[in-house]
Amino acid sequence: MFIHCVHNLSRQALYQKAETLYVKGNFELALVYYHRGQKLKPNSEMFRLGIQKAQEAIDSAVGGML
Predict the structure, then answer these.
(1) Mean pLDDT of the region 36-45
(2) By C-alpha distance, which of 24, 23, 21, 25 is closest to 37?
(3) Rounded distance between C-alpha atoms, residue 66 and residue 9, angstroms
(4) Which residues contact 34 (CB under 8 A, 6 or more apart)?
(5) Rounded to an integer, what distance in angstroms lies between the CA atom of residue 32 and that of residue 40?
(6) What are the backbone angles phi and psi of residue 44, rounded to the nearest 5°?
(7) Three-class DSSP category at 63
(8) Using CA atoms, how far apart are residues 63 and 5, in angstroms rounded to an integer?
(9) Is the model's pLDDT at 56 over the cut of 90?
């Protein structure tokens, strides 16, 4: 029971960290944290969508620089 709670909190913490980084415009590091969360829960829709939006933001930012 305790391990499950810690594991769940860990996923939530990773997601919140990723979201915070994303909102602050640190898309690359947000992407790292979304991937870390996805490793803990591979079928998670929230991490999959986070990865997608961070990647799109990076692509958009890089595209504007070219």
Answers:
(1) 94
(2) 21
(3) 40
(4) 14, 15, 18, 47, 50, 51, 54
(5) 13
(6) -75, 120
(7) helix
(8) 41
(9) yes
